[in-house]
Design brief:
The chain is mostly helical. It has two domains: 1-189, no CATH class; 191-277, no CATH class. It has twelve helices and no strands. Helix 5 (89-109) runs antiparallel to helix 8 and helix 9 packs across helix 11 (242-250). The longest helix has 26 residues, at 23-48. The radius of gyration is 21 Å and the shape is globular. The protein starts with a helix and ends with a helix. The model is unreliable at 138-145 (pLDDT under 50). This is Tetracycline regulation of excision, RteC.
């Protein structure tokens, strides 16, 4: 019952991220969109509730954390944009490096739960993502973005926070890179020495949207913007117009999935050659 609301949200958040607005304006628009979507989801839950624990777990593990993570992310970005020193490159760098240390401290503190989620483990889900287990994990929130006991479990907020911090890492890196364009150390951990994307950026966007549509990454629990950011890091490339490129691909006449079909042919040709040998 949440598909339409989430489809609208993902389309709108992509439009905001890829708009020509400045970063602060994007953050403010994103906060309003995320709050609106969370309110709509809450009304749906209050009206319909869940048929069984499996549906409840799916909602609090895979659905609610998406707009929640963007609410946290956009709030962090807005705070950063308003707080960063206005003058001087070095004070700005010091400020952003302090933000990076806070992110590292957060992940160090929550490494066990982050590992549980990233490894797609499930055995603790009834404890983490159902509301009847709240008594086992009393709330002591350090954040107060959107907290209602009847619309929260013990760990859905933390999972949203982890996803938000991954997005915020990318934001801080890009800000530092703008201030220190010659500092390659910023990207050493994200740049595999032997891997470089040498195909067209349009082809890469087509591939990433296909992976997203197939749900092949993190059991389908990733937004396309997160996938694009991860592959940008992995191949040390930029896909600034990923959303726009996708709509250009959709608008093609004839073969819309041109690169994917080319991949199929390349693989089949290789198999044929291997058999001949």
């Amino acid at each position: 019952m949440f598909e339409k609301a989430m489809s609208i949200f993902t389309d709108e958040v992509e439009r905001i991220i890829n708009s020509q607005e400045d970063t602060l304006k994007k953050a403010e628009l994103g906060i309003r969109l995320s709050n609106r979507t969370l309110s709509e989801l809450q009304r749906m839950v209050e009206k319909e509730d869940f048929e069984d624990p499996a549906e409840e777990i799916n909602f609090f593990r895979n659905i609610k954390p998406i707009p929640m993570s963007y609410l946290i992310y956009f709030t962090e970005v807005r705070t950063c944009e308003l707080s960063i020193p206005k003058l001087g490159t070095q004070p700005k760098i010091w400020f952003l490096e302090k933000e990076a240390k806070k992110i590292n401290k957060f992940f160090s503190k929550n490494k066990d739960f982050a590992n549980y989620m990233e490894q797609s483990r499930r055995y603790m889900d009834p404890e983490f993502f159902t509301r009847n287990k709240l008594d086992n994990f009393p709330f002591a929130p350090t954040i107060n973005y959107y907290q209602y006991p009847e619309f929260s479990t013990s760990h859905d907020m933390l999972w949203a926070m982890i996803q938000a911090m991954y997005k915020f890492i990318h934001y801080v890196r890009e800000k530092l890179h703008t201030l220190q364009p010659g500092n390659k150390a910023l990207f050493l951990e994200r740049k595999p020495k032997l891997l470089k994307w040498t195909g067209s950026k349009t082809a890469l966007v087509e591939l990433l949207y296909a992976l997203h549509a197939d749900g092949a990454l993190n059991h389908g629990n990733l937004e396309i913007s997160t996938i694009i950011s991860a592959f940008e890091d992995f191949f040390n490339t930029k896909l600034d117009q990923g959303y726009k490129t996708y709509y250009e691909i959709k608008a093609r006449k004839g073969d819309k999935a041109k690169y994917l079909n080319q991949l199929i042919l390349s693989l089949l040709n290789k198999m044929r050659r291997d058999d001949e040998l």
